[in-house]
Amino acid sequence: MIQRLQKMTALAAFHPKIEKSLKRWMQTREPVRRARKRKRKEGKGEEGEGTKGKEREASKEIDRTPPLPKKPVILIFIMALSILILILLGSPICSMDRTCSRQRMILQAAPM
Asked: What share of the chain is helix, strand, coil (3-state, %, to 5)?
């Protein structure tokens, strides 16, 4: 960037169009630099003062924990689902066993 600027200033002495474009470029460039400097100064001043510095610090924190591996997570869900299915299928069987035992008791107690 600096070398380009030096070349352009050297050429500006010989060519008036280059000189005009160089002046225009420098005029647009200076306010941008000043604005960046102001932002840097404001950012440094806010860290120690109000809550804006704390908000910036909180927003800069990035979660660096690695994601969960896919295969074990999928296997855990499959196991949980199979256990749930076994419970749902087993509960009617247990209730049928209870009703069968009650009916046996009633039949045995009844006089024939």
From this structure: 85, 0, 15
